[in-house]
Specification:
Blueprint: H1 3-55, H2 70-146, H3 153-184, E1 191-194, H4 196-213, E2 217-221, E3 230-233, H5 234-250, E4 257-264, E5 269-276, H6 283-286, H7 306-309, H8 316-326, E6 330-336, E7 340-348, E8 372-379, E9 382-383, E10 388-389, E11 392-398
Parallel strand pairs: 2-4
Antiparallel strand pairs: 1-3, 4-5, 5-7, 6-7, 8-11, 9-10
């Protein structure tokens, strides 16, 4: 065979081989595309579409893949997950419905508690006010009896007991009235300019007889440098000091010591404190000592024997805290059980402006001022032989 024909035959065979390779490669690529498209991409795309629908909130769809391979197993696992999600969604829906019901119940209960608390405040204010009127008469009669010249020692002691008990009851009634006003937001502030030292020294002088009766050394400890005058509510600061001194005298044993001191602190603030050598307050009770109707324990393990040993309702320190906050200040405590306590009150030089102060006299349901009592035609005829005193007092109430 000539060499040229051989070369031509080789060229044809090579061309056919290349063409066959190209066709084979194309067919292989086409087959791979079909396999990938229908065996891999389509199931994955189906799972993606179902997932997107579920993400939009359609939880009743299911993956439908029947390839007989791992993708079918994946779809079955996917469907099990959907059934679990549906069950949990139904359970969560039921929990939410029950929770909504509980929220409604709590809202109604909260409103009922709010109304009951308002009624309680109104009741406390009303009954306290109503108690003050006859109590003022009792105290007025006892003052007249005390001044009678023909009382013997036993009768005078009885009158003194009446006065002491009446004054103690009046303090508790006033505490209830103050508490009702504070909680209802009707406590007014009347700022004036005055020296803090004048208030403290006056309160100490007023408490001195009570302290002397128990042989307690009560005195003031003025600062070396005079402090700036205050523009505050003098009456409320006096009440704060009075409550702190009453508390200190009550819980300080005979022969104890009470010191009242004051000083300027940071710019625009003053601080005064009442330090006593009383029974002290256990550490575990100090955070609760300013709560309403709470008194400290006389025992370190916290058994509350104070109610039996000491008089009072447990409102004094609570009122101190509320009044301090009302004036823009705060009250602090340092105490060691068995060694004494230091109550400190920090107040601004000027009372902060309050936009929520309500005029108590112009507000419905406001507690009116206690009625004034005028006594006329007082006659005290003595009956020394009978050992009694005949007192006649014409009482006229003004207001209330």
């Amino acid at each position: 065979m000539p060499l040229g024909e051989v070369d031509q035959q080789l060229a044809r065979n090579w061309a056919m081989l290349v063409a066959s390779g190209i066709v084979t490669a194309f067919l292989a690529m086409l087959a791979a595309y079909v396999i990938v498209r229908y065996v891999i991409v389509k199931p994955v795309q189906h799972l993606k579409d179902v997932s997107d629908a579920i993400a939009r909130g359609t939880l009743n769809l299911r993956a439908e893949i029947s390839t007989g391979d791992e993708f079918e197993e994946l779809s079955q696992a996917f469907n099990r997950m959907l059934r679990y999600m549906n069950a949990k969604s139904d359970e969560l829906r039921g929990v939410n419905e029950r929770l909504d019901g509980k929220i409604d119940q709590l809202a109604r209960a909260n409103m009922e508690l709010f109304n009951n608390n308002r009624l309680k405040d109104d009741f406390l204010a009303t009954i306290s006010h109503e108690l003050r009127t006859p109590l003022n008469s009792i105290l007025g009669f006892s003052d007249i009896l005390q001044s009678a010249p023909n009382l013997d020692d036993r009768q005078r002691r009885y009158v003194t007991n009446i006065q002491t008990s009446g004054q103690s009851l009046m303090v508790q009634i006033n505490d209830l009235l103050d508490l009702a006003k504070i909680e209802s937001g009707k406590m007014e502030i009347h700022p004036t300019s005055f020296a803090l030292s004048d208030v403290l020294e006056l309160q100490v002088q007023q408490m001195m007889p009570l302290a002397d009766r128990r042989n307690i050394d009560l005195r003031t400890d003025p600062p070396p440098v005079p402090v700036s005058p205050l523009f505050q509510d003098r009456g409320k600061i006096s009440q704060i000091v009075n409550n702190l001194l009453s508390n200190a005298i009550k819980f300080t044993p005979e022969g104890g010591r009470i010191r009242v001191s004051w000083r300027a602190v940071e710019r625009g603030f003053l601080s005064f404190s009442v330090e006593d050598t009383g029974i002290g307050i256990p550490l575990q009770e100090q955070e609760h000592i300013f709560e309403k109707f709470r008194q400290g324990s006389t025992l370190p393990e916290g058994r509350d024997h104070t109610k039996r040993e000491y008089e009072g309702t447990g409102l004094g320190l609570s009122i101190v805290r509320e009044l301090s906050r009302l004036l823009g200040g705060e009250v602090g405590l340092k105490s060691e059980f068995g060694r004494g306590s230091i109550f400190s009150v920090r107040i601004p030089l000027e009372v902060p402006l309050r936009t929520d102060t309500v005029n108590a006299e112009a507000t419905a349901g406001t507690v009116q001022a206690p009625p004034l009592i005028t006594a006329t035609d007082i006659r005290i005829p003595a009956k020394a032989d009978a050992g009694t005193v005949d007192v006649r007092l014409d009482v006229q109430t003004i207001g209330g």
